TrEMBL record:
<dbReference type="InterPro" id="IPR003829">
    <property type="entry name" value="Pirin_N_dom"/>
</dbReference>
<comment type="similarity">
    <text>Belongs to the pirin family.</text>
</comment>
<dbReference type="GO" id="GO:0046872">
    <property type="term" value="F:metal ion binding"/>
</dbReference>
<feature type="domain" description="Pirin N-terminal">
    <location>
        <begin position="24"/>
        <end position="123"/>
    </location>
</feature>
<keyword id="KW-0408">Iron</keyword>
<dbReference type="Pfam" id="PF02678">
    <property type="entry name" value="Pirin"/>
</dbReference>
<keyword id="KW-0479">Metal-binding</keyword>
<protein>
    <recommendedName>
        <fullName>Pirin</fullName>
    </recommendedName>
</protein>
<feature type="domain" description="Pirin C-terminal">
    <location>
        <begin position="175"/>
        <end position="273"/>
    </location>
</feature>
<dbReference type="Pfam" id="PF05726">
    <property type="entry name" value="Pirin_C"/>
</dbReference>
<feature type="binding site">
    <location>
        <position position="62"/>
    </location>
    <ligand>
        <name>Fe cation</name>
    </ligand>
</feature>
<feature type="binding site">
    <location>
        <position position="104"/>
    </location>
    <ligand>
        <name>Fe cation</name>
    </ligand>
</feature>
<feature type="binding site">
    <location>
        <position position="106"/>
    </location>
    <ligand>
        <name>Fe cation</name>
    </ligand>
</feature>
<feature type="binding site">
    <location>
        <position position="60"/>
    </location>
    <ligand>
        <name>Fe cation</name>
    </ligand>
</feature>
<dbReference type="InterPro" id="IPR012093">
    <property type="entry name" value="Pirin"/>
</dbReference>
<dbReference type="InterPro" id="IPR008778">
    <property type="entry name" value="Pirin_C_dom"/>
</dbReference>
<dbReference type="InterPro" id="IPR014710">
    <property type="entry name" value="RmlC-like_jellyroll"/>
</dbReference>
Length: 311
């Protein structure tokens, strides 16, 4: 007998980000660390930031990953050590590729919209790409599929015959799905991909699961399509990709392969933070000091595979 693909609803947890923002961390989790090469998912908002500074994340480093920034509401200003200065607003996409090392800051501009709501996602770079030079790309337009009362924006990869222009380094897909009340949509899937679905707003029925903000629905490989429906209306994000088979060491803002790599990256950041330049460069224009790296744990950091098993 053929065993049907599994699905698991995984609750997230709240994490403070900077001084003014709390996010819901949906990935990594103890039992599911990755979906394809997607290794990190934070959902923030919707937050009323009309009376405060909004998002304020000082300059900090990254290695071995891509950041994918996606907004439903609001505006965030991105600065990085390449000299990039780029606002992001809903429907537009920022992708930063760290390669061997980059630093950046994220802040709500002055003035800023009254509500902030979005996703911050990371993609682990495969070994062939993770030592390359850093880059930053902004995509002001993305392909959109519309059907009746549903809209699908192709953020990364391909779906339904449309392909995002975003540059990635492994087989991936990411798409925002909006449903009007009472609407449904059936999405074609790649059976070689595993998938995850997140509700940013509203409730949707996905494979019998009542998917609401605060949880991630993991979908194993083997599916060729996926039906989503919502009685009340919903905004979802679908992410997927071929299983990523390289074990990773993830610590703070670094994605590496060994304990020694993380130790080296931390030391390089502390040097860049005190003496501008070096491996992570310098972010100019942010009104504040770079973030210091936390202390390393007293035990050796171990590489884990996508299911959390130590390798």
């Amino acid at each position: 007998m053929t065993v049907p693909p599994t699905s698991v609803l995984l609750p997230g947890h709240d994490v403070p980000l900077g001084r003014y923002t709390v996010v819901r961390r949906l990935l990594p989790q103890r039992v599911r660390r990755m979906i394809g090469a997607w290794c990190f998912v934070d959902h923030f908002g919707p937050d009323d930031v009309s009376a405060g500074p909004g998002m304020q994340v000082p300059p900090h480093p990254h290695t071995g990953l891509q950041t994918v920034s996606w907004l439903a509401e609001g505006e965030i200003l991105h600065r990085d050590s390449l000299g990039s200065l780029q606002p992001i607003t809903p429907g537009r996409l920022n992708v930063m590729t760290s390669g061997h090392g980059i630093s950046h800051s994220e802040e709500s501009p002055v003035p800023h919209p009254p509500v902030m709501h979005g996703l911050q996602l990371w993609v682990a770079l495969p070994d062939a790409a993770r030592h390359g030079p850093p880059r930053f790309d902004h995509y002001p337009t993305l392909p959109v599929l519309t059907h009746d009362a549903s809209t699908v924006t192709v953020v990364v990869g391909s779906i339904g015959g449309e392909t995002s222009p975003a540059v990635v380094f492994s087989p991936l897909v990411g798409a925002e799905i909006t449903l009007e009340p009472g609407a449904s949509v059936r999405l074609p899937l790649d059976p070689a991909f595993e998938y995850g679905a997140v509700s940013m707003a509203g409730s949707a029925d996905v494979l019998g699961a009542d998917l609401k903000p605060g949880a991630l629905l993991y979908l194993d490989r083997g599916r060729r399509d996926l039906r989503i429906e919502s009685e009340t209306g919903a905004r979802l994000f679908l992410l997927g990709g071929e299983p990523f088979d390289e074990p990773l060491v993830m610590w703070w803002n670094f994605v590496g392969r060994t304990h020694e790599e993380i130790v080296e990256a931390r030391a390089a950041w502390e040097h860049s933070r005190r003496e501008p330049g070096g491996r992570f460069g310098t972010v100019t224009g942010y009104a504040g000091d770079p973030l210091p790296a936390p202390e390393l744990p007293t035990v050796r950091l171990k590489a884990r595979d996508r299911s959390g098993t130590v390798r």
